[in-house]
Design a protein that fits this description.
Helices cover 75% and strands 0% of the residues. The chain is mostly helical. It has one domain. Helix 1 packs across helix 2 and helix 3 packs across helix 4 (80-104).
Length: 106
């Protein structure tokens, strides 16, 4: 997503469709992709069985968008594999580890 957005924004703002995008273009693309990443995590709220408020929506979108910015930066600097691994380990720490600890500590 980041690559497509960067390519499109570069063509739109600089009229150059080839070459490496400027850092400002990449950061703009990363911001849009991170916001989409945050919004795509909203359906997960239905699994929590709690009342959804506007504050909770902003909280979920902003935290996931912040993570998305980090993943986008990793993709930009180190490649796709680093972003995938970072997302995997973040999910492992945030979802699997607490469930395992809850089971063990019962």
């Amino acid at each position: 997503m980041l690559s497509c957005l960067a390519w499109g924004l570069q063509g739109l703002f600089t009229r150059q469709w080839t070459g490496r995008p400027e850092p400002r273009i990449l950061w703009a693309a990363n911001l849009v992709a991170a916001l989409a990443f945050g919004l795509l995590h909203l359906p997960n709220l239905s699994a929590l069985n709690i009342p959804v408020s506007p504050y909770l929506i902003v909280f979920v979108v902003s935290l996931n968008a912040a993570a998305g910015l980090g993943f986008g930066w990793l993709y930009w600097i180190f490649g796709l594999e680093s972003a995938i691994l970072a997302h995997f380990f973040m999910d492992l720490v945030l979802h699997v580890l607490p469930a395992l600890l809850q089971t063990v500590l019962r």
